[in-house]
């Protein structure tokens, strides 16, 4: 994981780099599939989230979205413990008022 553009993260999955941004649409997609973000963030902080939650959060925040099941397969291959810090960081951006910024 590395930070790049303001309010975005990069994640390497399956040998490719993906830019993740918690946009308004991404947050709406997360809430539609998983419920409220506050409860999800509390569970994530306690380590109580799994592959489904990780897949939804990463998929929703992908600047160029892959198929949902492909994202889950890539996360599983990468390892949940390696991907979970990125998920926590994305949730933090969502909860701290991440603002979309223009491209550099």
UniProtKB/TrEMBL annotation:
The lineage of its organism: Bacteria, Pseudomonadati, Pseudomonadota, Alphaproteobacteria, Emcibacterales. Pfam families: Phage_TAC_11 (PF11836). This is Gene transfer agent family protein. It comes from the Bacteria. InterPro entries: Phage_TAC_11.
